[in-house]
Design goal:
Elements lengths: L1 E5 L7 H9 L6 E6 L6 E8 L3 H11 L3 E2 L2 E2 L1 E7 L5 E3 L1
Antiparallel strand pairs: 1-3, 1-6, 2-3, 4-5, 6-7
Pfam families: RRM_1
Organism: Candidatus Accumulibacter contiguus
Protein name: RNA-binding protein
């Protein structure tokens, strides 16, 4: 399942998100979206977990959790009709 993670602090990286989600099961991939030229975080990313049950547990536990002074927005990502992913 693909999971949208929003409201990320600029210092949040892929390793930190991997460790956060690993507590709920296997993490297949993590991507923090970044500006093309500056490399700065856009404040959101995606985590892919292979198990639906583990994914739903992670969403329930981490949505609203404080990370670097900001409450995370965590929900299921769904495919856009134009390609790419979006959140619900």
């Amino acid at each position: 399942m693909n999971i949208f993670v929003g409201n990320l602090a600029p210092e949040t990286d892929e390793t930190e998100l991997t460790n956060l989600f690993k507590a709920f099961g296997q993490v297949k991939s993590v991507q923090v979206m970044r500006e093309l030229f500056s490399g700065a975080s856009k404040g959101f990313g995606f985590v892919e977990m292979p198990g639906r049950a583990h994914s739903l547990s992670a969403i329930a536990a981490l949505d609203g959790k404080d990370l670097h002074g900001q409450p995370l927005r965590v929900n299921e990502a769904v495919a856009r009709s134009s390609g790419g992913m979006r959140h619900r």
